[in-house]
Amino acid sequence: MSVIEEPLPETDVKKSAAPSTKGADDVRTGGWVVRITIAVIVILWLIPTVGVLVTSFRPEALVDSTGWWTALAHPFRAAEWTVENYRLALNEGFGNAFLNSLAVTIPSTVIPITIAAFAAYAFSWMHFKGRDVLFIVVVALLVVPLQMAIIPILRLYNEGATVGRLIVFPKLDLVGTFLGVWIAHTGFGLPLAIYLLRNFIGALPSSIIESARIDGADHFTIFWRLVVPLSVPALAAFAIFQFLWVWNDLLVAYVFLGGTDETSVLTVALRNLVGARGENWHLLTAAAFISMALPLIVFFALQKYFVRGLTAGAVKG
Description:
Elements: H1 10-17, H2 22-56, H3 60-65, H4 84-125, H5 131-140, H6 146-159, E1 161-163, E2 166-169, H7 178-202, H8 206-214, H9 219-230, H10 232-247, H11 251-257, H12 266-274, H13 281-315
Antiparallel strand pairs: 1-2
Helix pairs in contact: 2-13, 4-7, 4-10, 4-12, 4-13, 5-7, 7-10, 7-11, 7-13, 10-13, 12-13
């Protein structure tokens, strides 16, 4: 007994044969939602920055009497704009403070990166007793509050440290010197630098390291010729972090350098410019953009390494 199957109606055949586009439409809709959300967040973040930028080019009388958005109603009116705020800000000692910030930030970025790169290679590819314990100690230093370490370091700088008659740390009078703030920033930045670089360098292919050892390369040659070029993303990621942190730092610079005109950095100069009652707002906005110029250049120059280096250093171990 044979069973005769009835053919499906033509409309049903077309519906079953046609590919479903519902999933693709949902994906496209979700993509637009994400883009719109990101655009809204970016605009909200940019509004204060645009306000500060517009204010920095407005005369003092208009800054004190009207909001910054009123300038956008007459963008081509000459009376609405001036560069006098920038000239006055530079005359208030910002030129010297800018050079002091460079003198503090560049060594405070290069020194910890250099030391951390050597330490990270040792923790990753050199075998010695107590390696894991030392690395745990380094990671534990990440949770030490910066504020808790400032007073002990100041006492070391001023008085030194002795155990009985044994001099552990000599009295070097480093307070108020660039060397003192370099050492402080290096000590505060090293734990994070070693952690990030060790995870990145430890994730490099072991076959490359072993091949170099078979060819007779010593540790320094392997580090300099192989590890450093391959670790550029991680080095750049930490360089951005350290540079921005030191450049924008107020507490460490004010404590170890003081607020004199000869040693003050940009953040200290900004603090002095505001005054006790928040006056000179028009000068503060101009000075803020002067201090923002170099960090923006550094970030945009190294941004292509930022995400790759940060992700590898944070999640690989």
